[in-house]
Structure formats: structure tokens, C-alpha cells
Amino acid sequence: MSDAITAVPTIPVLDTPGTPGQEPAAHGLGTSLPQAEARAKTEGTFPYASDLWAEGLLWAAILRSPHPHARIVSVDTSAATAMAGVRAVVTAADVPGAATYGRRVADRPVFAADLVRHHGEAIAAVAADHPDTARLAAAAIAVEYEVLDPVTDPEKAFAAEALHPDGNLIRHIPLRFGDPDVTGEIVVEGLYRIGRQDPAPIGAEAGLAVPRPDGGVELYTASTDPHTDRDLAAACFGLPPEQVKLVVTGVPGATGDREDPGFQIPLGLLALRTGCPVKLTATREESFLGHAHRHPTLLRYRHHADAEGRLVKVEAQILLDAGAYADSSSESLAAAVAFACGPYVVPHAFVEGWAVRTNNPPSGHVRGEGAMQVCAAYEAQMDKLAAKLGVDPAELRMRNVMSTGDILPTGQTVTCPAPVAELLAAVRDFPLPALPKDTPEGEWLLPGGPEGAGEPGAVRRGVGYALGMVHMLGAEGTDEVSTATVRVQDGVATVICSAVDTGSGFSTLARQIVQDTLGIDEVHVAPVDTDQPPAGPAAHGRHTWVSGGAVERAAKMVRTQLLQPLAHQFGMSTELLQITDGKITSYDGVLSTTVTEAMDGKELWATAQCRPHPTEPLDEAGQGDAFVGLAFCAIRAVVDVDIELGAVRVVEMAVAQDVGRVLNPAQLATRIEAGVTQGVGAALTENLRTARGLVRHPDFTGYALPTSLDAPDIRIVKLVEERDVVAPFGAKAASAIPVVTSPAAVASAVRAATGRPVNRLPIRPQAAVAVPNS
């Protein structure tokens, strides 16, 4: 039946270079090769999951709980089933396989059966002939609830009645490093709170399920981890994985897990029940209620330093609110605890970290999870320490920065390049933007906007700094492996790899790798589905490293197949031959031919894997080599603050980043700018607010995303290209680290402008109002 599906996207290929009268297009690694799908996306013709259609299509709707915590007394679906046009209604009783699922811990029910644990939890799903009928039928399902008091304060979760059979504590990490009795001459303390940031995907979360003749089902969604999602769905359907196929549709960007399995599994159940294709396009409210958010976090810190400001000891307590289910909270906590001291040399560190269940909305993987929250806290502590010592904040940081060979508080040696001092110096020394004092007031953009209510005399400028770090790839023993195939025929190369391009540009990178290795301009990247070998999730820069490494190895194997006959013919090794601009030449010039001539109509292909060196879980003292690699960033923020109204305008963000190697300059700049903008949103506006577990205003009127008018001038002042020798290309993760660092930099700048402590993100207006005589 899948043949009836239309608008399933393939990756368009740009016109091949060499048009008469034009210079050949740049290609290969290190060039700004444009994305293959850029034109289609710009013109609005690129098909996403919400564009899919199939013959005999039914529409799905999901009934969600209006309560954050309740006991389900009864569910009556008779009224919905009796409605004209309704084809199926499914509840927890209709799940033929595993009743729960989860990418890391299988603790989340497909449909709530006995208890509701968060606002918006799925209770039932409906398939009908028309989307309006499906929604009306879902609303007609009668559910009797016994409303219970929700546990919404994570600090109270320890003593509260268990919300889940697994208990309320998901993980506890006590990190012990050094001598607990050491103290410093200077001590500063702080309590910090980080809000609930939503990944807020602009494209609608949608999917299509199509039953198969063999009793299985095909799922068409914008999954970022297709094989894991396939396996989760198959377990819930009671089917072997080979009877479930997941096809990745066009992904309209992702800063976390793009499609929650909670959308995909009901779709498949309805398709299997009805024998018809079933489609679901989530409303904006459903997206806010259903998918995972950044962990709200409570952090307590105490920093000890000597009289010169050099860190002696850091003590911290970190509490992550996981919401109702575990999801990726264990991994997020590990990152938060491991990076609790930041990219600074700390000889003694003692950190307690917890992740707990509550009746708040679910938390999970969002770009920079764990690292972003602690960065805001430890950088606030560095500002406090600088103020207490009377030292310039940038100078204080410079006295403590980490470098290659230093040891993390987890006991792991930093073996990768760690040019933190170079990054900090770059943003510190970059010229500051001009002050508006010589500009007519009518041309000055006040913090309140072009028509801001404030007065220029109340505006103060602040400059702040932040240093951030993230880990690359999975951690704590995660088996990171990816498989890729490169096939060449008739002068055209095809890459087959199930790495999902979420906007990170992997499909473009794969083309560049093959162009660089084989000298072939026209490279296609095949659409992704689970019939291909797994490549793992799109997170932590892993596809650049692991999947890119697999593509490179496969391309090099094809290169050897191509060159071996020529090398044998001319009595030389393949290492003495090179491929440049589609031509094969020998070191001595004796051999010169084209790749097309050497192929001679043959088809060459190879499959390869890439697997980085293994890591290990943190032990009972928080010690262990848990990370494959690290990336660093320094940001200087310049803000204007109306100290009477508390309005903040970010004037400029100067960024210096440790990138290892620039593979695509334009693409890299775009990813850094997007990450900084997302971080500015976390700093100033983005907070999914709840009241006793109920999500308030789950829409884009109540959840304020930064727009183009809110985006500051972003100056990429330095990209340090010190290659990581264990990475296939030496490149490092690029997207997450500016998200991690920029909120802390904005908060630091607001502190400098107002004299206020700024201990909460996002920054509320009352926190940006200056104290008297400040």
C-alpha cells in the first residue's frame, strides 16, 4: 500500500557544475557547498510529514488528560465509536504489545490506563474519515477522573508518595574529586533556577502510518533516531522489528528529539486496527503538551578561591525536574554533574546531582541538555567572585581556564584540543560596539523596541562573558556506531546512510566527503529508512563524526577499487595516484585520465562502519572516562538595559568557538548563529510556564520565541581550527555549544549593567531593574 503515498520527499540535487559561461562550483571539504534541498525549501515545495497523503486516508486525533495527576476511574468510548465516520478508537486495553515505551527507560505508557501523571498525557486515540470528525470523537470519549494533588516541586519529590512504580528518584550522582576539607580564602555562594525551555519546532509534528500486506506497518515521520523509534513502536505493536518500517520524511529542523514516539505509536495502532492509512498532524497545543522540554533545574553553588582568584574548590547541588517520565534525564544529569565546574581548573570538587519525577510536563533531550543549566550557574559564580575580589571578570576567568592535559572533576584527562584561553582572549579583545550617545535618539533602538516606552536616560550598557563546554557523541558507555554505503556508476555517486539531517547539514557533508575523495561532482544522498543499517540518533554532533567517518571510509574503499587496476597497470602503488577535479594523475605525470574513463561503465560500491573509542559509566563517586570528546566556546555579550522598566536588548554577541576543522564555512556560521539565537531566547523570553502542573498558554502567544527583530548582531570573531586527532575529520560539534554559552553571557552582561545578581533564567523584568544608586 505504500506505493499509494505521495509527497514522500527525496533529496533534490542541485544543477551540476560546468554550465557554459560559469565558473565550476566549489565542492569538497572546506567549501561552502549549499544544501541540496535549499531551493525546494526556499520555494516552499519541499515536502514535510504534514504534506503526506495516501489513498483511503483516515485522520487521527488523540484525547489528552486535562489534569496533571489523576486516577482514571473509567473510560467510556461508546459515544465516540457510534459517531458517523469514526473507524476506530483505541485505549490502553487495545495495545497488543508493550504497554510502555521510552528511548532510554521504558516507563511511559502508550495510553494512560490507571493513572495520569502529567497534563496532556494521552488517554485514547481515534481514526475517522475527516479530521474534524476525529477531533469531535476524541472529545466525546467520557473519562471519569479522581483528581489527585500533583507533585510539582522537585524538592518535595524525595518525600512525596511514589508517582511511578520505579519511584520518584531517577538517578543520583555524587561526584567526589579531591580533598573535602580544603577551603579557600574567598567564598561566594548562589542559588539559581533555570526555566523550562521548549524545543518549539516551527514545522508541525505529523506522521502517516500505512498498513502492510504482511501484517506490519510503515511509519512516515520526521524522526531523528529512526531505528530506535522503529524498535519502540514494534514492541508496542507486538510485532518483530522487520515488520515495521520507518521512513524519515523531510525534517524541518530539530534541536532535540524531533518527533515524540507518543505521536507515532497511536498512528500505527490505528492503521493496524483499521487496515487503512492514518495521518495525524498535531496542533501547536498538542506539541507543547506532548513532547519533551529542557529540564527545569535548581542549582546551589559554593565557590572557594585563593586571594588571587584562583579556584580552590567547587561545591554544588543540582536538581533536575524530569517531569513525569525518565526519558534522557540520566544522561542530562551526567552532563550537568560532569561539567558543573565549567572549563576551569578546579583541584577539588564535590557535586551532588539528582533527577526526579514530578507531575510537571516531561523533560528530555534538548540541545545542550545539562551543560546549559550549569553554565548559567557557574558563570554567575565567577562574576560574583570577580566582584568580591575587585578583578575584571574576563581576567578572573583567564586565571582559571582549562587547557589540554588538565583533568575534569570526573577524573578524565582532557586529551582533545582545549584552546579556552585563546577563545576568551579573542572575544575580550574584539572591539566593542559603538555607544549610542552620539546618535540621534530617533535612530537608537531602545530596549523596549522601536516604539519602546523607556527613556534613553534610563538605559545602561553592560558587557558580560561566559565560557561553555559540551561533550560530543554519546556518553557513559554508549555504543556509537554508524554504517554507510557509497555506490558509483555512470559518473554519479550515491550515499546510503540512515543518518538524519536535522538541519545540521549532514547530507551536504556526505556529498562533500565523496566529492573530496572520489573527485565526482554529482553526488546523491538516498532518503533515510530503517531498511538501511542503523546510524544512531542525530545529537551531540555525532553524524559529523561517526556517520561522516563511515561515509569517508566507504568512499576511500571505492577509491581503492577505482585506482588499483591503474596502479597495477603502471606498476605503482595507489598512494602515488591522486584524484583532483575529476582527474586521476600519478606523482610523475605519466598517468593522466578522468574518473569517468577509469570507471569504464563499471559499478563500484563499498560499505563501512565507524565506531569511536569506547567510554565508561561514571562510578559511585562520579569518576570515569565518560566522554569521547569535548568542545568549547567563549561569548562576550553586550546588552542595553532600561533599569527602570527592566527591558533588555541584546546589542551584540561576540563568539569564539573551538571547531576543530571548518568543513563548510557558510553552514558552520549559520549553525553558530542559530545556536546563539536559541540561547538568547532561553536567557530572556522562553519559559513554558505551569501552574500546579497545568501548562499555561501552550501556544506561540504565551510562549515567546525570539524573532528576527530580537536577534542581536552576532560576530563570529574566531574559529579555532585545532583538529581533534581521534575524529575522522578533526571537526567538533558546532550547534550545541553556543546554545549552552549564550544564556550565561547575556545574564553576565545584565548583571554588569544593573548590579543585580540575576540568578534565574529567563531573566524577568523585575530582575533587570537596577538597585538604587547602582
From TrEMBL:
Start and end residues of each Aldehyde oxidase/xanthine dehydrogenase a/b hammerhead domain: 43-149
A Pfam short name: MoCoBD_1
Tree of life domain: Bacteria
Chain spans, region Disordered: 1-37
Protein's recorded name: Xanthine dehydrogenase family protein molybdopterin-binding subunit
Taxonomic classification: Bacteria, Bacillati, Actinomycetota, Actinomycetes, Kitasatosporales
